[in-house]
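subagent[fold] <- orchestrator: predict structure for attached chain, return tokens only, no commentary.
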Amino acid sequence: MLQRFPNTQILRITGGPTKSPIWLQMLADLTGMILEVPNIEETGCLGTAMMAMEAAGENPPELLQQAMRQVQPNPEHFEAYQQKYQRYQQLVTTLKALH
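subagent[fold] -> orchestrator:
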């Protein structure tokens, strides 16, 4: 994903994974990115309200920022995950050579 969108700095996450603080922290640590998570469960309704506000000439991003919380990555965990991923890539390369 980051190869296709290299300027991405914040990931917005919705749905079931947002209910698990552990999963959210792991995702932030794995990606090294800030996660933004809605403070409401009905994100479809929020999106509809934002589109209606924009059509009415209002500024929905302000509403969105108020309705979000952030999960910050832990740089030490990010580095540890990167090292493990490099080992995984080496293993894949080795196994491909055997096949």
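orchestrator: received. Logging for downstream: The CA atoms of residues 15 and 42 lie 9 Å apart. The chain has a mean pLDDT of 87.
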